[in-house]
C-alpha cells in the first residue's frame, strides 16, 4: 500500500534510479527506496493541507518539491525531513512541476493556465508566463537550462526564453492534451506525447516538426531515452497505459519492438502509469498506481529489439570437413546422419523453467553436440583430405601416417575463413560513438557562440562552458582557448574566477598534450593579469581590519583566485613535458614572484 488514500503522482529520482517519491489525497509525500527485488517506504513527509498533485526531486536527490490542489508548493529537505520552503502564488491546483538542472529554480504549471518560475533561495516568483488558454498539463526545462517548455490541455505547446522572459515559439499541431515532454540527451530535440495518441518530434534549433508517429491505440504517458553508449539518445522508450514501445527517429521514425506491461488494461482495470526510468544497463523501471496502491515493475530491454543480441547458431565443424565426392561404394550410415544433423533433442528442447535459458549455455551445448567423435567419421574424411597423388620419395608407413595426420589438422585449421563480423561491428560502434561526440561538441560550440559570446555575455559564456558534461567540456574549452585572444577581450576578476577551474582541469600529466599546452597558456595570461590584484587585495585586508561591505564580493573573488593559484602551482610540479617546458617555467616563476611558489 502506497498511501492512506488515492495516489495521484509518482516520480523516480533520475540521478541514482534508486529512490522515488509519491503523493496522494492523504496530503503526504512518501519517499521510496527502489531495489530490483524490493521496494521500501523509507520516509513520509507532511506539510500540505490538501491533496498532493505533483512531485519531483532536485538533481542531487536531496530535496523534494510537491504541488497541491490548493495551489501551494512546498519544498522538503530530505535530510532534515521537514519543509524548508513554502511557495504561494497559483490561484488553483498545481498540476505539474519540474526542477532546474543547474540552480535552485522550480517551474510549475497550474489549473489557472499560468506557468511560474520560483527561486527557492528567495522564496519569490521570478517569472510568470501567461498565454495558455487551458490548464497546464506538463512543464519541462531544456537540458541547458535556458528555456522552458509547457504543454496544456488543448494540445498547445509553448517554448519560453527564461533569460528574456518571453515566448519563443508556439506549436498547435497536437489536437488533444499534452501528456509528456522529453528531451533528447544528446541533441536539441523535443519529443511530445498527447491524448490524441500520437507523438511528435521537434527540432528546437530550427523550430521545425521532424515527424509524427501513427495514431496508437492509447496515449503515451511517459517517455525515457536510452542513456548508455552506444545507444545514448538514439532510442525513445515510450510507455502508455498498457504497452512499452521502442522508437527511433535519427533517420526515420520507426517502432522496433513493443511489449505489454499492463495485462489488466485488457480487462479495463483502472491502473494509472506514474513514471518510467531507463537505467545504464537497459532496464526499464516503471511505476503505476491504482487507488492507494503503487506497483513497481521492470522490463528487460535487452530482450527486445534492437537491443537483443542475435542468438548464436550452432557451429558444425563436420560441414567444413565434409568430402566433396564420397566413395561410391559407401552408403549413408547411422553415425553419418547423426554427424550432420544431431538427432538427440535434449539440446534444442525448451526447458520447463524459463530462467534456465541462457544464450551462452545453449550455444555451448549445441556446439559440443555437433562435434564428431565416432571413428567412422574420421575414417571417411581423413584419407580424402591428405591422400597423395604421386608420391616421389618412398617413406616408411609410420612416418607417412603421422605426417598426413598432422598435415590434415594444420590444413583444416588454416583453411578456415576468419569471421570478421564482430570486428566490423565493433568498428561501427566506435565510429558511431565518435560521430556522436563530434556532433555534441559542435552543437555546444554553436550555442556558446550564438547565445553568449556573440551577444557579449562573457560571464554567461564561461558559465555555460563549466556546466557542460565531462568530455565535451574539456575539448570545447581547448577550442575556445586556442581561437580567442583572452588578453584582448577585457577580462575582469569574475571572469578570472570562472576561467581558472577550466584551465586547471586541462593541466594534468594524463591529459592530451594539446589540452595541457592550452591550459598552461591560459593560466599564464590570468596569472599575469590578476596575480598582482589578488596579492594587493589580500595584503590590504590583512592590514586593515575595518568591515567593508562594498568590497566583500571582490574579496571573495580574490580568495577564490588565491586558492586556484595554489592548486595551479601544485599541478605544475608534476608536469615535465618538453614542448611546454619554457611556458611552464615562466608560469612557475610568476607564481613564485607573487607569493605562490614553493
UniProtKB/TrEMBL annotation:
Pfam families linked: Katanin_con80, WD40
Q: Which portions of the sequence form the region Disordered?
A: 308-404
Q: Does the keyword Amino-acid biosynthesis apply?
A: no
What SUPFAM superfamilies is this protein classified in? Answer: WD40 repeat-like
The record, for SMART domains, names:
WD40 (SM00320)
What's in the keyword line of the UniProt record? Cytoplasm, Cytoskeleton, Microtubule, Repeat, WD repeat
Instruction: Work out whether the entry's keyword set contains Electron transport.
Output: no
- Family per record: Belongs to the WD repeat KATNB1 family.
Provide the protein's localization. Answer: Cytoplasm, Cytoskeleton
Point to the regions of Low complexity compositional bias: 320-337, 358-383
Q: Name one GO cellular component term.
A: cytoplasm
Ranked from the top, the taxonomy reads: Eukaryota, Sar, Stramenopiles, Oomycota, Saprolegniomycetes
Q: Which domain of life is it from?
A: Eukaryota
Using the UniProt record, give the first listed, main subcellular location: cytoplasm
Q: What does this protein do?
A: May participate in a complex which severs microtubules in an ATP-dependent manner. Microtubule severing may promote rapid reorganization of cellular microtubule arrays.
The segment(s) forming the Katanin p80 subunit C-terminal domain are: 435-576
Gene Ontology terms, MF aspect: microtubule binding
Q: What is this protein called?
A: Katanin p80 WD40 repeat-containing subunit B1 homolog
WD repeats (start-end): 1-42, 45-86, 87-128, 129-170, 171-212
The GO biological-process annotations, alphabetized, read as: microtubule depolymerization; microtubule severing
Amino acid at each position: 500500500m502506497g498511501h492512506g488514500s488515492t495516489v495521484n503522482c509518482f516520480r523516480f529520482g533520475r540521478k541514482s534510479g534508486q529512490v522515488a517519491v509519491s503523493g496522494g489525497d492523504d496530503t503526504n509525500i512518501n519517499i521510496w527506496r527502489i531495489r530490483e527485488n524490493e521496494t521500501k517506504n523509507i520516509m513520509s513527509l507532511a506539510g500540505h493541507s490538501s491533496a498532493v498533485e505533483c512531485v519531483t526531486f532536485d538533481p542531487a536527490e536531496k530535496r523534494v518539491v510537491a504541488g497541491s490542489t490548493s495551489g501551494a508548493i512546498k519544498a522538503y529537505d530530505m535530510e532534515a525531513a521537514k519543509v524548508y520552503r513554502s511557495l504561494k502564488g497559483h490561484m488553483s491546483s498545481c498540476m505539474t512541476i519540474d526542477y532546474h538542472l543547474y540552480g535552485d529554480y522550480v517551474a510549475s504549471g497550474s489549473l489557472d493556465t499560468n506557468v511560474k518560475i520560483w527561486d527557492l533561495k528567495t522564496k519569490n516568483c521570478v517569472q510568470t508566463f501567461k498565454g495558455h488558454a487551458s490548464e497546464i498539463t506538463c512543464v519541462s526545462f531544456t537540458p541547458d537550462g535556458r528555456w522552458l517548455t509547457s504543454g496544456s490541455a488543448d494540445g498547445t505547446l509553448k517554448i519560453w526564453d527564461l533569460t528574456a522572459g518571453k515566448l519563443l515559439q508556439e506549436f498547435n499541431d497536437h489536437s488533444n492534451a499534452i501528456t509528456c515532454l522529453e528531451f533528447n540527451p544528446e541533441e536539441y530535440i523535443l519529443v511530445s506525447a498527447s491524448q490524441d495518441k500520437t507523438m511528435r518530434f521537434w527540432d528546437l534549433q530550427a523550430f521545425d516538426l521532424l515527424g509524427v508517429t501513427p495514431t496508437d491505440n492509447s496515449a503515451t504517458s511517459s517517455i525515457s531515452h536510452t542513456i548508455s553508449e552506444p545507444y545514448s539518445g538514439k532510442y525513445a522508450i515510450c510507455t502508455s497505459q498498457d504497452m512499452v514501445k521502442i522508437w527511433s527517429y535519427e533517420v526515420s521514425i520507426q517502432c522496433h519492438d513493443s511489449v505489454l506491461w499492463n495485462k489488466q488494461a485488457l480487462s479495463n482495470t483502472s491502473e494509472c502509469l506514474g513514471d518510467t526510468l531507463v537505467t545504464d544497463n537497459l532496464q526499464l523501471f516503471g511505476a503505476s498506481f491504482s487507488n492507494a496502491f503503487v506497483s513497481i515493475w521492470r522490463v528487460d530491454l535487452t530482450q527486445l529489439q534492437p537491443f537483443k543480441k542475435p542468438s548464436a547458431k550452432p557451429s558444425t565443424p563436420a560441414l567444413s570437413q565434409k568430402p566433396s565426392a564420397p566413395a561410391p561404394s559407401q552408403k549413408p550410415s547411422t553415425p553419418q546422419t547423426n554427424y550432420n544433423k544431431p538427432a538427440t533433442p535434449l539440446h534444442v528442447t525448451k526447458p520447463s523453467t524459463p530462467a534456465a535459458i541462457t544464450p551462452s549455455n545453449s550455444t555451448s551445448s549445441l556446439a559440443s553436440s555437433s562435434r564428431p567423435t565416432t571413428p567412422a567419421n574420421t575414417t571417411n574424411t581423413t584419407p580424402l583430405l591428405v591422400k597423395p597423388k604421386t608420391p616421389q620419395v618412398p617413406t616408411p608407413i609410420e612416418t607417412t601416417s603421422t605426417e598426413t595426420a598432422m598435415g590434415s589438422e594444420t590444413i583444416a585449421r588454416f583453411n578456415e575463413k576468419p569471421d570478421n563480423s564482430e570486428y566490423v561491428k565493433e568498428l561501427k560502434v566506435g565510429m558511431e560513438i565518435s560521430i556522436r561526440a563530434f556532433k555534441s561538441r559542435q552543437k555546444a560550440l554553436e550555442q556558446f557562440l550564438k547565445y553568449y559570446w556573440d551577444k557579449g555575455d562573457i560571464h554567461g559564456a564561461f558559465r555555460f562552458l563549466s556546466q557542460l558534461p565531462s568530455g565535451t567540456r574539456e575539448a570545447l574549452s581547448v577550442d575556445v582557448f586556442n581561437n580567442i585572444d583572452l588578453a584582448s577581450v577585457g577580462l575582469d576578476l569574475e571572469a578570472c574566477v570562472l576561467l581558472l577551474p577550466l584551465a586547471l582541469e586541462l593541466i594534468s600529466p594524463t591529459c592530451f598534450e594539446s589540452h595541457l599546452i592550452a591550459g598552461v597558456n591560459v593560466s599564464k595570461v590570468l596569472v599575469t593579469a590578476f596575480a598582482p590584484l589578488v596579492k594587493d587585495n589580500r595584503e590590504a585586508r590583512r592590514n586593515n581590519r575595518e568591515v567593508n561591505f562594498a568590497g566583500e564580493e571582490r574579496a571573495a573573488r580574490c580568495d577564490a583566485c588565491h586558492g586556484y593559484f595554489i592548486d595551479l602551482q601544485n599541478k605544475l610540479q608534476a608536469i615535465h613535458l618538453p614542448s611546454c617546458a619554457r611556458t611552464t617555467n615562466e608560469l612557475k616563476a610568476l607564481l613564485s614572484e607573487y607569493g605562490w611558489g614553493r
